[in-house]
Amino acid sequence: MARIPRLSILLAAGVLLTGAAPAAAPAAGDGPTATASKSCSVRDSRSYGTTYVLSISARKVRCRKARERVRAFHACRKGARGRCPNLGRWNCSENRDFGQGSFYSNVKCKRGGKVVKHRYNQWT
Prior knowledge:
Helix content: 25-40%
Strand content: 25-35%
């Protein structure tokens, strides 16, 4: 029986693997695709109607519109301890961490698949 060189076996295995790879890959339109949140620049952190806006992120929303949503949220919540559960068709939730003289808050506003998140600090 003739011996088959190892190189020939490796080449044959490589050809088989390369040919099978495109069949296993999903087609361009199949299944959901992940949409990552993008971080938006805060710019002037004191221009939002609160003590400090620390961060803004958005998913399926342009950063300019996300900053508008943050400003609208802070215009809606009157006073340092005020809340704003919705902005028209946008529903907002807020988690606050109270400290001495101030609190930090994480806000998430959603409308369908669109999401705007921001974190702010408020002196009370």
